[in-house]
Write a structure and sequence with these properties.
Blueprint (H helix, E strand, L loop, with lengths): L6 H7 L1 H14 L6 H14 L3 E5 L2 H14 L8 E5 L4 H8 L4 E5 L21 E7 L9 H10 L2 E5 L7 E2 L2 E2 L6 E5 L13 E5 L2 H10 L4 E3 L2 E2 L10 H12 L1 H18 L27 E4 L3 H10 L27 H9 E4 L7 H12 L4
Parallel strand pairs: 2-3, 2-4, 4-5, 5-8
Antiparallel strand pairs: 1-9, 6-7, 8-9, 10-11, 12-13
The protein binds pyridoxal-5'-phosphate (PLP).
């Protein structure tokens, strides 16, 4: 069986260094706010090319804290509108509604699956305060056109960079393209910890400072509480592991690109729609895509998934139900987003990771090519 994602094998790759890093933490006696976090924040900020990185508990918290900070800073108020893609993981939307802000959903582009920049302007109202772009599946969603809309209407541009650590747009990394970005280091992400972890990256020093305060009980100094904050921290163990894996992130993403390129070249099946190949290049800083997921489409998706499983290839669906059709968002259930709904019915994610060997990649290709409707 070719596993969708073999985390055990990924860990094995860095085992010696990770064990050293863990022992360093065990011996240090510092388990929160120590040297590992301080150094990871410096190293990840340098990697992304931002002035600041603030470690937090997870990716959802990173995004929640960004909105909360903008509210405390007076840039937005409860009830204001945030433009977001209709086609995203639920966490993007939760970060908005958790702050009593209102998500205004915009359809994606059917070829990239990212927010359709042509449909954003008509969704802007007097209450719009930000555009949340999601670099879905590892592909950059930033466009100069979106940044120009933000300038024109005085909106914040926020990136959900949970799926695209290491991706580029014109030589700049995702996570550094907007006013602020939420990063997730959930174990399955391109840069994954051994549990929950996340970070906010931003060039805005005031925002970074506010997020440090809000993520630590709202305290500006020990036992001095300026805000009703929360507890969301990136601990020393996770930071130490992330420091090891960050060193190999570009090499790991390169391997993902190789596999994606092989899939794109060799999967030839008239019943299957391949992902947008506009960024098919192995050159690092011009390529936008880091292939967190390799997502194909098929009108008989469920049958294809069964066929692949029966032939030894495990796949997953990202995602089966869009946020506006979830019970948690009952007030949105009556809305229709045809592009989003079509995507959710047809998508299927093939295995892709830095530890897949050529033989496995070839077997995936052959199995997919053998499928007939
Ligand atoms: C994983 C993910 C998140 C949330 O990250 P967690 O660390 O799991 O909280 C947010 N947005 C997107 C698009 C994600 O894929």
């Amino acid at each position: 069986m070719i596993k969708f994602l073999d985390l055990q094998k990924i860990t094995k790759k860095y085992e010696t260094e990770i064990k050293e890093a863990l022992m360093r933490v065990v011996d240090s006696g510092h388990y929160l706010f120590g040297e590992e976090l301080k150094n990871f924040e410096i190293e990840y900020a340098l990697y992304c090319g931002t002035r600041n990185c603030v470690g937090v508990g997870n990716g959802l918290d990173a995004l929640r804290l960004i909105f909360r900070a903008y509210i405390e800073m007076g840039f937005m108020n409860q009830g204001d509108e945030i433009i977001a893609p209709a086609n995203t993981y639920i966490a993007s939307i939760l970060s908005i509604t958790d702050n009593q802000l209102k998500p205004v959903l915009v359809e994606p582009d059917i070829s990239t699956y990212n927010i359709d920049s042509d449909r954003i302007e008509m969704a802007i109202t007097a209450r719009t305060k930000a555009i949340l772009i999601v670099h879905l599946y590892g592909q950059n969603a930033y466009q100069d056109k979106i940044a120009n809309l933000c300038k024109k209407y005085n909106l914040k541009l926020i990136e959900d960079n949970a799926q695209a650590q290491g991706a580029f747009f014109k030589g700049k990394r995702t996570g550094s393209l907007g006013d602020s970005a939420g990063n997730s280091f959930y174990p399955g992400k391109n840069l994954g910890a051994f549990g929950d972890a996340g970070a906010v990256t931003t060039n805005d020093d005031e925002l970074a400072k506010m997020i440090r305060i809000l993520s630590n009980y709202g305290s500006s100094g020990k036992y001095i509480n300026m805000y009703q904050g929360m507890n969301s921290r990136l601990d020393e163990i996770q930071a130490a592991i992330l420091r090891v894996k960050l060193k190999y992130l570009d090499a790991d993403n390169y391997r993902r690109r190789e596999i994606a390129q092989f899939y794109c070249k060799n999967i030839k099946n008239p019943f299957i729609t391949m992902p947008f190949a506009g960024h098919q290049t192995l050159v690092l800083n011009s390529a936008a895509h880091v292939w967190h997921l390799f997502v194909i489409r098929c009108s008989e998706r469920d049958k294809l998934q069964d066929f692949l499983l029966n032939n030894g290839v495990q796949t997953l669906i990202h995602y089966p139900i869009p946020p506006h059709k979830q019970a948690a968002y009952a007030e949105y259930n009556g809305m229709t987003f045809p592009v989003t709904e079509a995507i959710h019915k047809e998508v299927l994610s093939l295995p892709i990771s830095q530890v897949m060997v050529d033989e496995e990649v070839k077997r995936v290709v052959d199995t997919v090519n053998n499928w007939k409707e």
